[in-house]
Amino acid sequence: MSLDYEKTTDTLIVDTQGVQPSAPVDENTPGRVSLSNSLPYIIGGLGVIMIVGGVMYYWQSGRRSAGGKSRRRSRAHSEEQDGGEEKYCPQCGERSKAGDRFCRTCGARLRHQEE
Fold it and tell me: Mean pLDDT across the chain, nearest whole number?
């Protein structure tokens, strides 16, 4: 059995049909994810993260500035006790601290001028 078919024109016999949903699509359609339902949670989560980050940054910067001020005070205080005179190691040139008899870097004996 063999079948042959020839069409004389290129026009379609049946017009195209549009695709129609079986039911109207709205926010209650099963499987549909609405951004408006989860958007408040997303924005709230980002807000909490930003607040926690800001508090941590503020706390850390407060620790650094307080630590830096106390260090400066202690250095100024130690210089006042020495009479403002700075002493250095004659061997390596490292600065010594008040009450040192030996260099903390190379171990050389420090020269003391007694007044």
Answer: 80
Count of the separate structural domains present in the chain: 1
Q: Write the single-letter amino acid at 67.
A: G
> How is residue 38 written in tokens?
């989860």
The closest alpha carbon to 75, from 86, 64, 66, belongs to 86
Whether 54 is covered by a domain: the verdict is no
CA triple 79-83-89, angle to 5 deg? 70
Q: Is residue 41 a part of any domain in this protein?
A: no
Using only C-alpha atoms, the chain has a radius of gyration, in whole angstroms, of: 42
Q: Is residue 7 part of a domain?
A: no
Q: What are the pLDDT digits (tens) for 62-102?
A: 877 665 555 555 555 554 455 557 788 888 989 888 888 88
CB 94, CB 106: distance < 8 Å: yes
